[in-house]
Amino acid sequence: MLENLLKDLNAEIESPYLEEAYNKAIKDVNPFYLTEEYLEKIFECKIIKENCEILRTALKGVNKVENLALFVKILYHIIDLGRGKGCAFTKLVLPTAPENSEYSIAYDCASAFAILGHMPKYKEQLNARGVEDRIVYDTISLMDINITMGSEKAGKPICDHETFISYGAYIYTETIWIERFRFQLTSSSKYPIYVFRNKVGDIKIMMRDVYVHESGYLCGSVGIPDTEPGAYAELTEGDDYYEGYFVDNKTNLVIPTPQRISKSEWELLLKPNEDVLKIHVPFGGNFTAEVFDKTLKKGEEVMKAFFPDKNIKGICATSWFFTPALKGLLKPTSNIMAFRNCFTLYPKVSQGYDVFEFVFENPIKSYDELDVDKLPEDNSLRRGVKELFKKGVYFPEFGAFRPFNNK
After folding, report:
1. Which one in 2, 110, 260, 398 has a CA-CA gap of 20 to 30 Å to 99?
2. Cα dist from 220 to 166, 211, 401, whole Å
3. What residue spans of 346-406 are helical by DSSP H?
4. Which residue in 291, 294, 286, 358 sits closest to 322, CA to CA?
5. Angstrom distance (rounded) from CA 116 to CA 164
6. Are 52 and 43 in contact (CB under 8 A)?
7. Sign of torsion over alpha carbons 345, 348, 350, 354
8. 71, 11 contact by CB (below 8 A)
9. Which of 130, 156, 123, 136 is nearest to 41 (CA)?
10. What is the pTM of this model?
């Protein structure tokens, strides 16, 4: 029956809690989170301000499509069962409405109700951990902004996959929103780096468990031939030195020969299996250098208080913002450059697709899908990226690190 349900909705769910959640969902008669009374309480709390009418319409549709309501209940119980255990979903494809369905808004916004059902508990959890009221409100109300941005991007009202993953997959986990930045506690093992710091606060990044191409990019990245295996990057430690493949902080590329640094001058700040914060910057919106620095410092302060038992070493990020080719296209005073300057950068294995989604609003999964001549040229960044790409320049996403107690 579950298989038929998902097929009927053109949806997919993979989760360790799926079977148990499904059994709970079919017994969950008249759940509070699918009632108009509960939705109006959410609106009264100002969690949702911009999308009230859309969600009112969607809720009526959800309650008229039996399988859609059951899908929402399954999502709700998966979130509940996965509380505090990390992301509860390993795969998720949200429902798609049948062609010309009168309930298309319900299909597109259904996942929002599973999230909204957990918002009071989520607020209680944040308050109990001592998070200040303003940040609690920002954390739970940014869902409304994300629905608006996702709808603008899709050209129709929608609680899209990105919005659901931001909240539904990580609600009750180690995640807080500050000024539209999402801070999430995670492990440094997810990042292919060692980080070193000297006494004056300078940072050096050494690559680990990757293959370094002679160009300074990583093998497996766009533009690097698969036939060239490169040099394997790993840490070699002597009595008084560390040796490996370090990143040049001027070019942000890997120096293609092993380098050695002195233990008397450099401490090993970050190694695998340590706590770091992952930061995600949602698409849209304008930021200034002051907002970047203030928000990153606030994130450090809040997360230290939120996790007093954790020795959080710093903040990690991955973005097309950090790709080297952008330096020649942007003014040093631009907001993107200001954000870049908050971090020490390093290459990652990447195909460079994100720039087309976020600069041109033209997401791709393969360069075969891209008609470069049709890309718009209505601002200087778009013109610059398009011109360089036509010359054979790629824009792979790069990684970034910023230590706590940044100087």
Report:
1. 2
2. 28, 8, 22
3. 354-360, 380-390
4. 358
5. 11
6. yes
7. negative
8. yes
9. 123
10. 0.78
Q: How confident is the model at residue 220 (pLDDT cuts 50, 70, 90)?
A: very high
3-state SS class at 101:
coil
Q: For residue 158, what are its two tokens?
A: 């929608």
Does pLDDT of 283 surpass 60? no
pLDDT bin (cut points 50, 70, 90) of residue 163 is: confident
CA dist 163 and 180 (Å) reads 12
Backbone angles phi, psi at 287, to 5 degrees: -130, 150
160-174, 185-199, 281-295, 330-344: least confident range: 281-295
The token pair at 145 is 């902004």
Quick check: 227 pLDDT over 70?
Answer: no
Highest averaged pLDDT of the listed ranges 23-37, 126-140, 284-298 = 23-37
Higher pLDDT, 164 or 343: 343
Query: And the tokens for 126?
Result: 């944040």
Stretch (H or E) spanning 153 = helix 133-154
**281: nearest Cα among 166, 153, 111:** 166
Dist CA 375 CA 356 (whole Å): 9
Is residue 236 helix, strand or coil? strand
For the chain, the structural domain boundaries read 2-173, 188-270, 285-403
How far apart CA 33 and CA 330 sit, in angstroms, is 47
**Which residues are registered as beta bridge partners of 185?**
277
Q: Where are the alpha helices (DSSP H) in 209-323?
A: 289-306
Tokens of 263: 């233990």
User: Using an 8 Å Cβ cutoff, are 59 and 39 in contact?
Assistant: yes
Spatial distance between the Cα atoms of 104 and 61, rounded to a whole number of angstroms: 8
Determine the Cα–Cα distance for residues 248 and 225; give it in Å rounded to an integer: 22
Q: Does position 407 have pLDDT exceeding 60, yes or no? A: no
What tens digit of pLDDT does each residue of 202-219 get?
A: 999 999 999 999 999 999
| 254: DSSP letter | B
Closest-CA residue to 404 (of 295, 318, 276, 288) = 276
- Per-residue tokens: 355: 């720039």
Question: What SS3 state is found at 374?
Answer: helix
Confidence (pLDDT) at 282:
56
Beta bridge partners of 195: 205, 270
Q: Looking up tokens 């991955």, which residue turns up?
A: 318
